């Protein structure tokens, strides 16, 4: 099975759905209730799987959640074997995915820059593009 084959993508999607449900069921107090599985990469030989996890909160909550997931990885793998029928149940490696937080931070920065541009245009007495569009 190739890495980007249809079968591999279907396996990745099914493993991601199952892991998202399993992570919600884990009763470890270190794992934040605002944890989501954002992606999975199952190797073509089904031996290993990278699980990308996003945690809403501060860095301390993310650190504790990752410790809890590493601690519960054997339980999670066993539950995955029960829910998803694969020839081999992959060994799970959890990776913290902070791309959502990065995207939100970039969005805030873009909003700040556009607000500063509008203020500068208003200070110079120029009309903004929004006002020009309304005139049409």
CA-atom Rg in angstroms? 22 Å
How many DSSP helices? 5
**Main sheet attributes: strand count, strand direction, barrel closure:** 3 strands, mixed
How many domains? The number is 2
CATH architecture of the largest domain: 2-Layer Sandwich
Please state the oligomeric state of the protein chains shown: single chain
- The rough form would be described as elongated
Beta-strand share of residues: 15-25%
* Count of extended strands: 3
Strand order in the sheet with the most strands: 1-2-3
What does this protein look like?
This protein is an alpha+beta fold and 136 residues long. The protein contains five helices and three strands, in the order H-E-E-H-H-E-H-H. It folds into two domains: 1-97, GMP Synthetase, Chain A, domain 3 (2-Layer Sandwich); 99-136. It has helices at residues 6-25, 59-71, 73-83, 99-124, 129-135, and strands at residues 35-42, 48-55, 91-96. It has a three-stranded mixed β-sheet with strand order 1-2-3. 18% of the residues are buried.
Search tags:
three-stranded mixed β-sheet; single chain; alpha+beta; 136 residues; 5 helices; GMP Synthetase, Chain A, domain 3; 3 strands
Précis, in short:
With 136 residues, the chain is an alpha+beta fold. Helices cover 57% and strands 16% of the residues.
């Amino acid at each position: 099975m190739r890495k980007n084959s249809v079968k591999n993508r279907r396996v990745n999607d099914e493993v991601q759905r199952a892991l998202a449900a399993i992570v919600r069921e884990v009763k470890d107090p270190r794992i934040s209730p605002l944890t989501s599985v954002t992606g999975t990469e199952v190797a073509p030989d089904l031996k290993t799987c990278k699980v990308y996890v996003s945690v809403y909160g501060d860095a301390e909550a993310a650190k504790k959640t990752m410790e809890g997931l590493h601690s519960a990885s054997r339980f999670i793998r066993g539950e995955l074997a029960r829910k998803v029928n694969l020839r081999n149940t992959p060994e799970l490696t959890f990776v913290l995915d902070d791309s959502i937080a990065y995207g939100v931070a970039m969005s805030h920065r873009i909003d700040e820059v556009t607000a500063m541009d509008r203020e500068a245009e208003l200070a110079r007495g120029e009309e903004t593009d929004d006002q020009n569009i309304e005139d049409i």
